[in-house]
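Reviewer 2 asked us to include a model.

Predict the structure of this chain.
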Amino acid sequence: MSETIEGDTLGHALANLFAVVDGDAEPGTEEYDRAMEPGLTDAQREIAAKHAGEDRFEVDESTVPNLGQKLAAGKKLPWTFTIDGVRFVMKTSTGSGSSVADSKWWWTDGGYRFTFYRYSGGTDEVSIREA
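Predicted model (structure tokens):
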């Protein structure tokens, strides 16, 4: 599978890439690092408790930023998913697969074990268990 970068996104991506290569900039990681910190918000904890123990189910929405989006933003961007209107961040690098193929990722946070199922041709799913 390949990624296509066009228009303004391509322009921003190239500008940021050249700035990094020339040593004039570094990809921003502050937002990413903050998003990856352990812990759940009250809203996330409520949703996790509500769905804990269910079979895996479809998420409302998910974002898996591609290389072009990361380059255009000039920073690392986390994978995210939304359940019942509440946004979660995939807080792991433990899994199998990739961003462009079917994959499975898992992590524990706030007393819950999350498993995120990424489907390249369909709606992503998640399962939540008490840790």
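The first helix runs from residue 7 to 21. The mean pLDDT is 82. We have added this to the supplementary material.
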